[in-house]
Amino acid sequence: MNNDAANKTSQTYLDFWLEILQAILEGNDTPQGFYPILAANQDKLNEEFRILWRDWTTAIIDTEDYPEALIITDIVSNFSSLIKEFPLGNRAQNIEISITGLEMTQKIYSREVFPLNWARNQHNLGNAYRDRIFGDETENIKQGLAFYHNALEVFTPEEFPEDWARTKNNLAMAYAQRIRGKKAYNQELAFANYQDALEVYSREAFPRQWAMIQNNLVENSIKKSKNKAYNGEIAIKYCQSALQVVTREEFPLDWANIQHNLAAIYLFISNGERLDYLEIALTHSQEALQVFLREKNPYEWAFTQRTLGFIYKEKGEIKSATECLQLSLEIFTPALLPRECFGSALLLGDTAFITQNWTVAIQGYEKAIEAVEKRREWATNEAARQEIQSDAIDVYIKMVQACINDGQIEKALETVERSKSRNLVELLANSELEPKGASDSLKQDLRRLRRTISSIRQLLAQTDNKSTFNRDSFQGFRGSETSSLTHEYIDRQRQLLQEYQRQLDEVFAKCQKLDPAFTLTQEVKPITVAEIRDLIDSHTAILEWHIGTDSFQIFIVTQSNLEVVQFDKAKLEKLEAWNQQYLGALFNDTETWQDNLSKWLSSLSQILRLNEILNHPALDNCDSLILVPHRYLHLFPLHSLSVSQQTWLRFNQETLHLQPPANPCLLDCFKKGVRYAPSCQLLQQVQQRKRPAADTRTLFAIQNPTEDLAYTDIEVEVIKQAFKPADILSKQQATKTALIDNLETLAQAHYVHFSCHGSFDFQTPLISSLILAGAMESTDSPNPTGQKSLRLRSGGQANPAKCLTLQDIFATLNLPKCRLVTLSACETGLTDTSKQSDDCIGLATGFLYAGSQGVLSSLWSVDDFATAYLMIKCYENLATADMAVALNTAQIWLRDATQSKLLEWIGELKLDSESTQHIKGFLETYDADETPFESPVFWAAFCAIGN
After folding, report:
1. How far apart, in whole angstroms, are the C-alpha atoms of residue 353 and residue 322?
2. Cα–Cα distance between 165 and 148 in angstroms, integer?
3. Stretch among 41-45, 279-283, 301-305, 457-461 having the lowest mean pLDDT
4. CA distance 552 to 544
5. pLDDT value at 429 more than 80
6. What distances in angstroms separate CA 946 from CA 425, 463, 574, 679, 943, one per listed residue?
7. 734-769 burial, b for 16+ CB within 10 Å, e for fewer?
8. Would you tell me how many other CB atoms lie within 10 Å of the CB of residue 913?
9. Helix axis angle, 382-391 relative to 358-378, nearest 10°?
10. Could you tell me the pTM of the whole model?
11. Cis peptide before 334, with omega less than 30 degrees from 0?
């Protein structure tokens, strides 16, 4: 916009504000006198007006002397209260304008000079934040509650009984809406505050206010216990009491609101079975619509249309239900009213699903997903974003099924991707945003603060949204029933978050001066099928799983094909049962699990119909495979699932003269490797990282910091010979302090290798750790940091403050040149899979976030001896192969290597005599043609993740 146009726009908004000022000064400060002006200027009630109005008003208040500043403040306060209740236009924007005005008035309305004005302002801010649509719902309610409590410091029942009662009523409404905490407790607080308000608002003295509290008690009574019939009777009595005072003639909007509540109550207690109740509900809704008109009361009208749609759905009148819900969505749009939109859109999708009207079902679910993503965008913290995604995951599942049923396989896969790893995808996308023209030091400060804040937010999110993993079944998962962090530690993290956020605000202000268009976040658009195909060449396929509530699917993606294979509820139940039994054995009965791992993998292969999938025509000519698991499938070595010899022959036509393996697995079928990705969109972001060619290969390694892993020394000593330079922190040197001191060296490394103990904490994944020197401690060691000790499956426990935790990785590690991070340790590939949102937060994804293109990580406690030689062979292969091929070839080699071949290879390593003799002593317990490491226990734990 050029200057002339901007000035013209500014003048238009100024003229509008002057019209408002004139109306209020002339006494038109009631809804009847004031709203016609707003109705005629709805197009001006937008964000541009809010900002210009704020700047004008603030300048006047700051420069004018008393009483002019007070007069302007009074007008702003009046306008702010009126616009909040204005029923037309963009309701969310109206509330934002109201909040802006009320916050401006606080400059004049101080508690010391104008206590009553201050208290009323606090009360009005409470109302505005309670009803706020933008921002995080939980934080809005929290702020609203704080404002109400502030107001009550002045409004006492003795001095200001009416103000006190009004504030108590609104405080009760806020508690009734509160999301955090126990619902029953919140409802009890709401009920207590309603009762307080009724001490003043008696029927005799304040009939209308009394009636409105009766109406407010309707929702409270329904939520107080699980007895629907009893709760419904109580709620109906409240409505009937209110209607003794509230008539349609005297209080039409209040009357219509009670009619709507009666409709909702009868719908609630009908259970879809009492047709007489549904008819009563229908009558009350229709009566409400006689007052709630779309032109005058669009929000209430749309809400009543939604209730009508629900009633018609329960009656089986699907056409009428669909029409009402579609009308509701004309007002409740994803962009403006996402919470309300979600309710109507989900109901529309479910209604259409019943009659297999897939087109309408998809329309409904699509709008619901847009609403979910808008709410996530508005949320101000990680916990809220994760909770919104988790609570809405069913709509993604239903959308996927509706798309498949309608033959829209591309849209189904795109929806699957929208549901996976959203938080991690957004973190990666935003971590690389930088302002133009900024100095290296400013960029470094920005990167450091953003990463640190992100890590703390994730930690706090995990303490709020605790894992639901069943510890009664799987006690082997680390951590206790309680959080792995103390309350003191969590409080300290919250304090640090505030301080870091303050620092980030300062850095961001500097960045915007240099680059006004710079933002800390960006919209991450969902990946399309075309973009997914761009990730692979003509000889690569993707197998992507999606687990729903009643079925699961595998999508087969190649450059020229997209197919989906569906599994019904019976197959899903088999998969769920296998998952429970497998993990129960893995974490509670290790010996049995080891003895039967091959059988477990064969059984899973059959459940997943792997041979059928691999023989699909879409996989013709494919020699490379990318696996994208979902939920608990991330915990299984899918690359080692057994296949038939017939399937092996299909992928090994050029080697038909060779004897097939006795027990071939997936790895044997893809000569160019099998690798993993948490999601295709995450893989896309990783593949977009460019690493310039280098004359030398550099290594940074951590070697046996606890000095109890005999073979890790051999592993690192051999591996480092292929690198120049190779920077090694060995044994006692490998402390956390030393690692932090070497962050610049680490940032220059092309390859990073951790050969140590590892531990995954399912209760608080961000304290999952790589164990460094000095971290191991006795069971009674005090921990001054507030972090509880990590228990290792190998025995002992470690102090997270002395480990490299996942939180540390998110906060401090920067690997701009790294091609591969190898986590040669236990459990480094595990993630918390208890949540449907499939966030995949684990050590491996932490290193992807830090900048690495790929990660090698493990799914269980690995054998030190076998792992050392698997790693040595893998690094040998890396000289001529990529990550996946290098690892897969090494795994097959270790599986198939006979004792004689291993002895021959050991001789080529040129180890010291003591190590050589020790290894030979172990291998000589086997016959020459035996394969000591044939079991997948020894080789299948490691996965290649990323590019």
Report:
1. 11
2. 11
3. 457-461
4. 11
5. no
6. 13, 28, 30, 10, 10
7. bbbebbeeeeeebbebbbbbbbbbbbbbbbbbbbbb
8. 7
9. 170
10. 0.85
11. no
Structure-block tokens of residue 313:
């759905």
Distance between CA atoms of 161 and 67, rounded to whole angstroms?
Answer: 29
Residue type at 816? Answer: P
Q: Which residues pair with 78 in a beta bridge?
A: none
Q: Write out the DSSP string of 52-69.
A: HHHHHHHHHHHHPPTTHH
Whole-angstrom CA distances from 780 to 225, 353, 747, 799 are 45, 58, 37, 12
Over 70: is that where the pLDDT of 787 sits?
no
| Rounded-to-5 percentages of helix, strand, coil across the chain | 60, 10, 30
Residue type at 726? A
* CA–CA dist 20, 277 (Å, integer): 48
| 492 Rama class: left (phi>0) / alpha (psi -120 to 50) / beta | alpha
Residue recorded with tokens 């699909």: 616
CA distances from 672 to 152, 206, 888, 894 (A): 70, 80, 9, 18
Verify cis geometry, omega within 30 degrees of 0, for the bond prior to 664.
no
**3-class state of residue 704 by DSSP:** coil
Round to whole Å and give the CA distance between 123 and 106.
Answer: 12
Question: Does residue 387 surpass a pLDDT of 90?
Answer: no
Identify the pLDDT of residue 701: 97
HEC sequence for 18-48:
HHHHHHHHCCCCCHHHHHHHHHHCHHHCCHH
In sequence order, the 6+-apart residues with CB closer than 8 A to the CB of 99 are: 80, 125, 128, 129, 132
What is the full DSSP assignment across 470-495? Answer: -TTT-TTSBS-SS-SB-HHHHHHHHH
806 phi and psi, to 5 degrees? Answer: -60, -35
Distances (CA, A) of 617 to 210, 612, 651, 655, 656: 72, 10, 12, 21, 20
580 CA to centre of own chain: 25
Question: Is residue 918 over pLDDT 90?
Answer: no
CB 902 within 8 A of CB 934: no
φ/ψ (deg, to 5) at 129 = -70, -35
Calculate what percentage of the chain has a pLDDT beyond 70: 93
The strand pairing partners of 625, in sequence order, are 541, 674
Q: How many whole angstroms separate alpha carbon 581 and alpha carbon 560?
A: 38
**In this predicted structure, what is the pLDDT of residue 656?**
66
In which residue are the tokens 């007070």 written? 70
Q: How many residues does the chain have?
A: 947
Better-predicted residue by pLDDT, 887 or 522 = 887
pLDDT tens figures, 217-251: 988 888 766 677 778 888 999 999 999 999 999 99
CA distance 395 to 342: 10
Residue 660: the pLDDT is 82
Which of 158, 140, 810, 169 has the alpha carbon at shortest distance from 451?
810
Q: What is the pLDDT of residue 836?
A: 65
What is the average pLDDT across 651-679?
89
